[in-house]
Amino acid sequence: MPNRPTLARVLALPENRSALVAIQDLLFTLTEPSRRSCADPLFLHGPSGCGKTFLVSALAEELASCGICVFKMSANDFAAESDIGAAKQADLLIVEDLQHLPLRSVDSFIRLIDERGHFERPTIFSALVGPGRLQHRGTPYPQRLTSRLGAGLVVALDPLQAPSRRRLLKSLAEETKMAIAPDILNWFATHLTGGGRQLQGAIRQFKALQRLQTKPLRLADIRAHFRTPLEAGALTVQRIAERVSGYFHVAPKRLQSARRSRDVLLPRQVSMYLARQLTDLSLQKIGKFFGRRDHKTVHHACLKIEEVIKTDAVLSGAVRQMRAELA
After folding, report:
1. Cross-strand partners of 153
2. Cβ neighbour number for residue 36 with a 10 Å cutoff
3. Check: CATH 3.30.160.40 for 162-232?
4. Contact 164, 12 (CB under 8 A)
5. Hey, is 208 helix, strand or coil?
6. What is the CA radius of gyration of the chain?
7. Residue 231 confidence (pLDDT) above 80
């Protein structure tokens, strides 16, 4: 019996293991003569940098090498008629960034899903959040769409944690035949939290720097080289407020105002909570940013959000999502 195709270049990590199993199952379904059934559609969701694109791209490359027709597109480009035709006929359709699907395209998109389901042609969707929380510019997608998206297998990918980042860095270094000292790998894994693309970039930069040196790079060299970009990308209360404002669709400046209406109060409290969780700033400094409020107000806001997310699944998921994206 011939060997089954595998996604050998994809590293199995705790954060992506379930998604990798689902992708591998789909690979078997499309390449084995028996064509055994699999969960369809497959919906992958997680914050930027968790590896969704890497997984589906690896699958597409493997299938293409086997002569399987794969069509890969962004949801934002769905309106193009030429893309719709190709999407209908492909053996596998991959639609990324579903949160960008234009609302005017929802009905056409539903017809596409139904047609592919009728002919048992599998589809993979990816997005930042799960089907039930999808929205486009503040407007939730209709239930007739989200119910179809969640009808198969929905799998969450988590942000990479430090041990997994180290394993991935080591694997990337080995692929490029680079010898990187353990202390440098540990430093990268601890300080580079932007996801797989940032880690790949770090390995490329390391390789370029090493070519300019006659001696092996030391940790001090790496710290000096990466200090400026890391400081530029350091998390600030401003960044937190902008991210939270974007989710709640309010202007960031309104969070610093004296307003106490619910449309401003809740995002302000969430911003304070995340600032307390993700920065080393004191309650006083956080309060100063949000309209010169005192430390008691910030403390109350943090306690309030901690209580609400215990019972409000939607807000709890939103806070987890924003925290993962900001961290």
Report:
1. 42
2. 9
3. no
4. no
5. helix
6. 23
7. no
pLDDT at 232: 67
State both tokens at 17.
């293991």
DSSP track, 73-101: EEGGGTT-HHHHHHHHH-SEEEEE-GGG-
pLDDT band at 271 (very low <50, low <70, confident <90, very high): very high
Q: How far is CA 59 from CA 15, 22, 239, 276, 325, in A?
A: 18, 11, 35, 40, 25
User: Do the beta carbons of residue 11 and residue 167 sit within 8 Å?
Assistant: yes
* CATH no., domain 17-156: 3.40.50.300
Chain CA centroid to CA 129, Å: 8
Instruction: List pLDDT tens digits, range 52-86.
Output: 999 999 999 999 999 999 999 999 887 655 578 88
| Distance in angstroms (rounded) separating the CA atoms of residues 31 and 27 | 6
pLDDT band at 152 (very low <50, low <70, confident <90, very high): very high
Q: Determine the pLDDT at residue 2.
A: 47
Q: Are 227 and 269 in contact (CB under 8 A)?
A: no
Helices and strands in the chain, H and E counts: 14, 7
Q: CATH homologous superfamily for 237-326?
A: DnaA protein, C-terminal DNA-binding domain (1.10.1750.10)
